[in-house]
Amino acid sequence: MVKDTPQSTTGRIYRKIKDLLIQSRSRAFQVVNTQMVTCYWNIGRLIVEEEQSGTKRAVYGKGLLVELAKKLSGEFGKGFDASRLRNMRLFYKGYPNCDALSHNLSWTHYRILLRVENHDARAFYEAETINARWSTRELERQIASLLFDRLPRSFVLIDLKVGELKHQDIGQMQMYVNYYQRDLTESDENPPIGIILCSDKSDAVVRYTLPEDNNQIFASRYKLYLPTEEELATEIQKERRFIEMEKRLSDEEENSK
After folding, report:
1. Count of other CB atoms within 10 angstroms of residue 81
2. Residues 175-217: tens digit of each pLDDT
3. Torsion of the alpha carbons at 32, 36, 42 and 48, rounded to the nearest 10
4. Could you tell me the CA-to-CA distances from 37 to 31, 32, 71, 83, 87 in Å, in that order?
5. CB burial class (10 A; 0-12, 13-18, 19+) of residue 47?
6. Is 81 helix (H, G, I), strand (E, B) or coil?
7. Residue 87 has what pLDDT?
8. How far apart are CA 130 and CA 152, in angstroms?
């Protein structure tokens, strides 16, 4: 039986405190971010409603924004210049439903998304940012790479596996991809791509699968903007560690009651 030593006890408590601080900071940032985004949305709403007052069609009020910027900047600082207020106005017009805003996106995320004029493309980048937890820099990179335009009309088949990746798993995905290529893919569509995600307690494995005799397509086209198998595996491991930490903290809180 291994006895606790002062060093091991200190290390154990330190890890618990560290996990609590990381979780608390993350939650605090999320609360502050949500409040700021909601505040900016409401400022945009007030500006648009004032512009529309008495008219059926909004008229761009340069004078209103300039005067507001002077007053707000004098009291709250440079963060409320006319350019920032213009972004808030566009924010409200681009996202008129406050309930549809995501607490996972920062104000900077939304400012970047507003540059995407195509509604479907903007919705795509917004969803990918939330699901993949893109930073603002990564979001800008993906938009600049024209990801939405370069990967349209392509079936993406995803198989989630718990445990070790087996040869028959790859064969089964290959069969599905070949079927989609042969019977469901139109002539103007890109070839389908299969992604197998496997994770066990010690490792994570990712494999891409394309229709037979199409490996060159992956090298020349998809590889330019899809993450590598190693990058995806790393993300799976990060996500697993995060989930395990959340579960451990939840169990500890439950046991302490």
Report:
1. 16
2. 998 898 888 887 767 788 888 888 776 667 777 777 776 655 5
3. -170
4. 10, 9, 21, 16, 12
5. buried
6. coil
7. 92
8. 20
Phi and psi at 199, nearest 5°, equal -145, 130
pLDDT tens column, 227-237: 777 888 888 78
Residue pair 192/173 in contact by the 8 Å Cβ criterion = no
Angstrom distance (rounded) from CA 96 to CA 104: 18
Q: Could you give the CA distance from residue 66 to residue 64 in angstroms, rounded to a whole number?
A: 6
Question: How far out from the chain centre does Cα 53 lie?
Answer: 37
**Inter-residue contact 252 to 16 (CB < 8 Å):** yes
CA dist., res. 211 & res. 177, Å (int):
6
Burial class of residue 33, CB neighbours in 10 A (0-12, 13-18, 19+): middle
pTM: predicted TM-score of the whole model, two decimal places = 0.55
Q: Where are the domains of the chain?
A: 1-95, 104-150, 153-255
Q: Is 91 exposed, middle or buried (0-12, 13-18, 19+ CB in 10 A)?
A: buried
